[in-house]
UniProtKB/TrEMBL annotation:
<dbReference type="GO" id="GO:0008270">
    <property type="term" value="F:zinc ion binding"/>
</dbReference>
<feature type="binding site">
    <location>
        <position position="232"/>
    </location>
    <ligand>
        <name>Zn(2+) 1</name>
    </ligand>
</feature>
<protein>
    <recommendedName>
        <fullName>Chaperone protein DnaJ</fullName>
    </recommendedName>
</protein>
<keyword id="KW-0863">Zinc-finger</keyword>
<feature type="binding site">
    <location>
        <position position="183"/>
    </location>
    <ligand>
        <name>Zn(2+) 1</name>
    </ligand>
</feature>
<dbReference type="Pfam" id="PF00684">
    <property type="entry name" value="DnaJ_CXXCXGXG"/>
</dbReference>
<comment type="subunit">
    <text>Homodimer.</text>
</comment>
<comment type="similarity">
    <text>Belongs to the DnaJ family.</text>
</comment>
<dbReference type="InterPro" id="IPR002939">
    <property type="entry name" value="DnaJ_C"/>
</dbReference>
<keyword id="KW-0143">Chaperone</keyword>
<feature type="binding site">
    <location>
        <position position="218"/>
    </location>
    <ligand>
        <name>Zn(2+) 2</name>
    </ligand>
</feature>
<feature type="domain" description="J">
    <location>
        <begin position="11"/>
        <end position="76"/>
    </location>
</feature>
<feature type="binding site">
    <location>
        <position position="199"/>
    </location>
    <ligand>
        <name>Zn(2+) 2</name>
    </ligand>
</feature>
<dbReference type="InterPro" id="IPR012724">
    <property type="entry name" value="DnaJ"/>
</dbReference>
<feature type="domain" description="CR-type">
    <location>
        <begin position="167"/>
        <end position="244"/>
    </location>
</feature>
<dbReference type="InterPro" id="IPR001623">
    <property type="entry name" value="DnaJ_domain"/>
</dbReference>
<comment type="function">
    <text>Participates actively in the response to hyperosmotic and heat shock by preventing the aggregation of stress-denatured proteins and by disaggregating proteins, also in an autonomous, DnaK-independent fashion. Unfolded proteins bind initially to DnaJ; upon interaction with the DnaJ-bound protein, DnaK hydrolyzes its bound ATP, resulting in the formation of a stable complex. GrpE releases ADP from DnaK; ATP binding to DnaK triggers the release of the substrate protein, thus completing the reaction cycle.</text>
</comment>
Length: 397
């Protein structure tokens, strides 16, 4: 939601009520608490609460992203140390950000900042973009402003085990900034924002200072390069409206409990037609009465009789789809796991894990006279054959 050029005058840590040393989990908890307390659905008509909600969302958009947070911290540190010539300090601060004093006439060595390789920041991303917009080696900027984007949104869903294993689609209700239905997100009543005359559409204004071309975000258009001269009455020129919307989320097969699914461009709409943020769906999976899983393997425990293990048999076993027949070899011990290839959790590429079938003997709680007589006859025959189930156990010979 915030472009790096907008970060200089923001205190995102204060907006969330956390310290700059707060952990990612502490930042997340603080954001959720503020979002829950100030959500417009819970405070209808309360403009102050809505403003606090949006401020918290903007702060979390930066601090909740590891890469953005690092860039933000580095930028704020340099501003505190006077690291930008013309913005306080001594015209460029000592060692901050790789600036090195070269004496009274040689100025600064920016090679560390703009290095495309090695330890400096890249010109094509990160803080290199921020520095590049201020110091352009006398060439003028020649670059368009990086567009802002909408805030990322996080929501939670709960799935049955089999839905998570096989994949599903589920409707999700969201509340937040969406493109204005009147101006289709442009913010302009005519749908055609004008090119900013002050920056000629670049989003930056330049000033030559000695050997350097100094650039800074255009304050006329907010560094967008466009200016709305005929604001839409429905959204007051912002291009967005706060409303509820429903989207269908496709959950891929094989998601696990606690996994997050990212849907690019399904977050809040950006201002004046800029890109939307992303939607992150956190998945909770309910346990199943029959199945568990180990990686991509599906596990099931099947009750069997002693006779089925001793004599061998073919049993029917459930899967995520239709049941399968599994052959139990004669003499199979209780607790043995049999493997059925390719009937487990689906993987990418059309393959699947295996079905792991563990057999467990179930003992009847009661027998009729005929069954008891037959079992006694068998037990005697077992003893006569010399079979001892405890042979070799606990030191027995």
């Amino acid at each position: 939601m915030n472009a790096p050029s907008e970060w200089a005058d923001k205190d995102f840590y204060a907006d969330l009520g956390v310290s700059s040393s707060a952990s990612a989990e502490e930042i997340k908890k603080a954001y959720r608490k503020l979002a829950r307390e100030n959500h417009p659905d819970a405070n209808p008509g309360d403009d102050a609460a809505e403003a606090r909600f949006k401020k918290a969302a903007a702060a979390y958009d930066v601090l909740g992203d590891e890469k953005k947070r690092k860039e933000y911290d580095q930028l704020k540190a340099m501003l505190r140390n006077g690291g930008f010539p013309g913005f306080g300090g001594n015209g460029g601060a000592g060692s901050a950000g790789g600036f090195r004093s070269q004496g009274p006439t040689s100025g600064f060595d920016f090679s560390d900042v703009f290095s495309r390789t090695g330890g400096g920041f890249s010109e094509e991303g990160g803080l290199g973009d921020i520095f590049g917009s201020f110091f352009d080696r006398g060439r003028g900027t020649g670059r368009a402003a990086r567009p802002t984007r909408g805030a990322d949104v996080e929501t939670e869903i709960t799935l049955d085990f089999r839905e998570a294993a096989k994949g599903t689609t589920i409707p999700v209700e969201l509340s937040g900034n969406a493109p204005c239905t009147t101006c289709h997100g442009s913010g302009s009543r005519s749908g055609k924002p004008s090119t900013c005359s002050k920056c000629s559409g670049t989003g930056f204004v330049s000033e030559q200072r000695g050997a350097f071309g100094m650039s800074q975000p255009c304050d006329e258009c907010g560094a967008t390069g466009k200016k709305v001269t005929d604001p839409c009455s429905a959204c007051k020129g912002t291009g967005t409206q706060y409303r509820k919307r429903s989207i269908t989320v496709r959950i891929p097969a094989g998601v696990i409990d606690g996994q997050k699914v990212r849907l690019a461009g399904q977050g809040e709409a950006g201002p004046n037609g800029t890109p939307s943020g992303d939607l992150f769906v956190s998945v909770t999976v309910r346990p199943d009465k029959v199945f568990t899983r180990s990686g991509d393997d599906l596990e099931v425990t099947v009750p069997v009789s002693f006779a089925e293990l001793a004599l061998g048999d073919t049993i029917t076993v459930p899967t995520l789809d239709s049941p399968v027949k599994v052959r139990v070899p004669a003499g199979t011990p209780d607790g043995r796991t049999l493997r059925v290839r390719g009937r487990g959790i689906p993987k990418r590429g059309g393959k699947a894990g295996d079905l792991l079938v563990t057999v467990r003997v179930t003992v009847p709680s009661s027998l009729d006279d005929a069954a008891k007589s037959a079992l006694r006859t068998y037990a005697q025959a077992e003893r006569d054959s010399g079979f001892d189930p405890r042979a070799g156990w606990a030191g027995r010979s």
